[in-house]
């Protein structure tokens, strides 16, 4: 027997490729193409570094208060952590201890299975339909908890309150997590349901809509009891609070609503233009409620498009997984980046279709 027999054996989460270069277009990690609020940068630059000799506020009191006020909640209904991944991992520890399988879609944020494997939480992946929609009726079964990303990733599909309410009504005895990482880009938030369902927990991130992926800030909203359980899990298993600089930056971001809304409008407008252009090229994709699109072309394999774009330093995301291996997830970048992507795709598709037609004619086939 070797020590290697005792090493963890799980399929690790694979993030979008991070090229070791600067001259490329990065559309594979759903990052915001615009910088954070100028107020965030000001807060970082003016931070008194001497204070760093002291530990930060253990429960991010100032940041939690700012988030609570922004959403019309009380501080006891908000938990702040080091990115949504940190918050979600603590949610899994705090809420899913019944021994019953938790439920989440088979096509969703793939970190869910990683946390379940690490924490030995049984789980069932519920199939979305052929159009990638989640059917609430499929969650009417005994379970130990439910995790729903709304809008969902990587499909980009957002659903309304009636959709989530149907799941909550059938599962009042377990925690239902609504992961709203992308909700600011056109989704429907479940915050109004917090007053009706004390088993609902909503998670959010500063990484996407607030352009702060490098700062690692996330938070959860829920009943006082649920939030208290999160703090208990953090203090027992991961005592590291949000660092002082990140807390100051988060407060500054929350307070600059005008910049926040302006940036959102720019991303949404570019997204809608991208969707229109892709459909004109023959791509098939659902309407998006996120800062990315989920596209497939009926005549060209997604992996071939992925490899071609990568060869010219445009990085998009391809998932080598069942049911979605012919789709690309493309982050919405700046208008200039989208123009470059669109031009390259048009040229690629034109060349491939011409080659197919030539080959058909050489063999005497009829090509349409």
Termini separation (Å)?
63 Å
Going by helix content, strand content and strand pairing, the class is alpha/beta
Low-pLDDT runs: none
Average pLDDT taken over every residue? 93
Shape: globular
Order of helices and strands: EHHEHEHEEHEEEHHHEHEEEH
Question: Strand order, biggest sheet?
Answer: 2-8-7-6-5
* Largest sheet features: 5 strands, mixed
Discrete helix count = 10
Using brief descriptors, characterize the structure shown.
368 residues, five-stranded mixed sheet, globular, 12% strand, 12 strands
Verbal overview:
The chain is an alpha/beta fold and 368 residues long. The protein contains ten helices and twelve strands. It has helices at residues 38-45, 61-71, 83-95, 111-119, 161-169, 224-237, 244-255, 257-280, 302-311, 335-362, and strands at residues 25-26, 78-81, 102-105, 123-126, 146-149, 176-179, 200-205, 218-221, 292-295, 314-315, 317-318, 328-331. The strands form four sheets. A five-stranded mixed β-sheet has the order 2-8-7-6-5, with helices on both faces. Strands 9-12-11 form a three-stranded antiparallel β-sheet, with helices on one face. Strands 1-10 form a two-stranded parallel sheet. α5 (161-169) links the parallel β5 (146-149) and β6.
Put the structure in a nutshell.
By secondary structure, the chain is an alpha/beta fold. Helices cover 38% and strands 12% of the residues.
Write the layout of secondary structure elements.
Elements: E1 25-26, H1 38-45, H2 61-71, E2 78-81, H3 83-95, E3 102-105, H4 111-119, E4 123-126, E5 146-149, H5 161-169, E6 176-179, E7 200-205, E8 218-221, H6 224-237, H7 244-255, H8 257-280, E9 292-295, H9 302-311, E10 314-315, E11 317-318, E12 328-331, H10 335-362
Parallel strand pairs: 1-10, 3-4, 5-6, 6-7
Antiparallel strand pairs: 2-8, 7-8, 9-12, 11-12
